[in-house]
Design goal:
CATH architecture of the largest domain: 3-Layer(aba) Sandwich
Oligomer: single chain
Shape: globular
Structural class: alpha/beta
Order of helices and strands: EEHHHHHEHEHEHEHEH
CATH class of the largest domain: Alpha Beta
Helix content: 40-55%
Number of domains: 2
Number of strands: 7
Largest sheet: 7 strands, mixed
Strand content: 5-15%
CATH topology of the largest domain: Rossmann fold
Amino acid sequence: MTASPFSLEIIRAPQTDRRFRAALFDFDGTLSLVREGWQNIMVPYFCEVLLETMEDAAEAERIVRDFVDRITGKQTIYQCIQLAKEVEERGGTPLDPLLYKKEYLRRLQERIQSRVDALAAGTASPDDFVVPGARRFLTLLREAGYKLYLASGTDEFYVKQEAELLQLTDFFDGGIYGAQDDYKTFSKALVISRLIEINKLDGAELVGFGDGYVEIENVREVGGYAVGVATNEANPGAGVDAWKRGRLLEAGADVIAPDFAAPERLFRFLTTGADA
């Protein structure tokens, strides 16, 4: 792991006249590295499908990357629904999006199964697959009385399984939520709406952490403070991933952090607005 100075890119400082009471976290890429490289499975597979209806490989990749990036953070099924639409628009006969999802997950599982097995067997440390500093940062939030929630576009079964393997489950007293077979019954926006109602929060009392477009937009829409976590998943601790940074800024992130490698400093920033 390559050491890198921790730095925050502050677009808007947090309000300091009202403290945060709840925090929402994305999972893959924000806290967990178990599924690192998933884009390298989804994009080539989707390109294979799309190239059955067109010949320009570069254009197919541009189309796929655009919608995969844009929808990242939503349930996986939405990317598969968009793939079906792209196939149909080009005169093809798409499969049911659930079949695209099933094949994508099969390919992804082949990539990550050794990681899951190593964690389950105890031959890998949970911290090998946790974003730098995340465990300590979650501890600081819990000690300060935050209600913690986890919401992921990955199927809930896998999110809960992987959170348990990473020994993160106990942090999330607000619950762990993931994609459902009936995809219309879950979204990060719904989780946010419910947690605000249950905890009788003002939107400004919510802070959200994520590396995707959707959670940043959803947190900002309710008046919360959105922390873009631009982790370099392939080389944790190596600083900001430039591609993630661009997408997070476009989504409206209030601050960009490379990870949680300076947990006390990030916590102090959120509570005082000072980055020093």
